[in-house]
Automatic annotation (TrEMBL):
Leader peptide range in chain numbering: none
Organism the protein comes from: Mycena rosella
The MYND-type domain, residue ranges: 275-326
Keyword Zinc: yes
Name of this protein: MYND-type domain-containing protein
Alphabetized UniProt keyword annotations: Metal-binding, Zinc, Zinc-finger
Amino acid sequence: MGFGSSPKSPSFTKDRRGWNSAWERDLATVFGSSVEMTFTSNRSVPNLTAGLPKEYYDMMLADANVLNLQTITSQICILQRDLTRKSSKRFAEDDFESDWTTRCSVKEREDFILEGLVRACQASPDFEEHRKWYQVSIRSSCPELTLKRLNHGSGQGFLDLLKKMTLQDLDKIPSEFKTVPNVVYDKLHAIADPKPHPGWVLAKKSCDSTRAYLLTMVVWNILLAFYGESENYGLVKGQRTDPGQLKRLKELGGSDVKSIARETAANRLLGERHCTSCGLPAEKAGVATLAACQRCKAINRLVFYCSKKCQAADWKTGHPPHKTICGKEGAIAEALLSPVPAQVDDDDELFPAPNPGYTRSPALLHQLKLLKENPQVDYVLVQPDPHPDHGVVLQDAMGGMFFKLCMRRAVCDRSPREVLMMFQQLEPTAQGAPGFGVAKLKKQLLKEYGVDVDAVKAER
């Protein structure tokens, strides 16, 4: 199967709606076709990673397999950070939520969704071609990805999924990708054993990474398509699997594993090396070639960097820090299985972390970014390009302190009263700001905090 082609008939290159309908029929046989996802009554519920031969779990711990998993994890984390940056700006400046739900027709949203699905499958043939046990494909690990589910509620299904994929920090690349809970998928991949084989844990993480990668890639490409943008992707050349292990894996897994092995080998030919730290290939990093870590190369582990800066960053703060695994066989599996230490929040005390259960909106994340970049202002009235934003500086010292106290609470938890008081302090500036006005201020606060200040007033 060639890169960019499709195993479904018809292919997305000939009839993308027919191609998608074929996929959705397959999904419906397992998960039903309603918006709410449940297993159909005539199907048993398999566990896709439990009960595999011990030899398979042992192979999952091989250095090459673990490093490939870590590479994919890093790629997902970078993509989710980029998605968070892009969506926060679009929500705040361009009113994406309203454009998507009220200004797009059902047909227009379907076209954007189909474009995102096709682009994702073109970006990596694994997303469509790989087959797992019980004939469950990678796309079948993402039952959310149907036109009905993404388009329901005037497109609210897509917005909900996008918000679940975004992070709470626009700058940091996390050590672990963000997952989207799903009762169907979680049941398929549950680990009930209190002391599971480490290889089982990695097998589940591998499935989780595939699901997270496809969900993020589809959401990312739908957003890009909506704004007439696109991005070229290159396959990451993975570590070469030990031939002896691959032979045993084929013997254990039958035709499905043989098919995966063939496709993985083909993908390696198409792939290119990427910098372990920034994730860029040599061309995009602006260098002729990437440099390999020589100590890791000596144990047949291939780790590459585009610059001394990236190498130093990965050595100190990589996931895991490279100094803990450099040239050490088996160390990367141990690091990947170890609990991730809590990241130290080095932000100032103005914007503490949100309370448990509270998720900052993309528009609010954009506001916090602007305030960090412009510490001399108390708030920013956001306008779409090419119109300039308007920074607000509260002249009364006591009023400024009170405003910051209200905002400190509002960015950490739902706080309608505090948002109303913020509105009252910002209202005079909004009235006089060129091209802005009170109505736009109300709309901005609604996008940022989910609070309708008029409704809060009416309740008082």
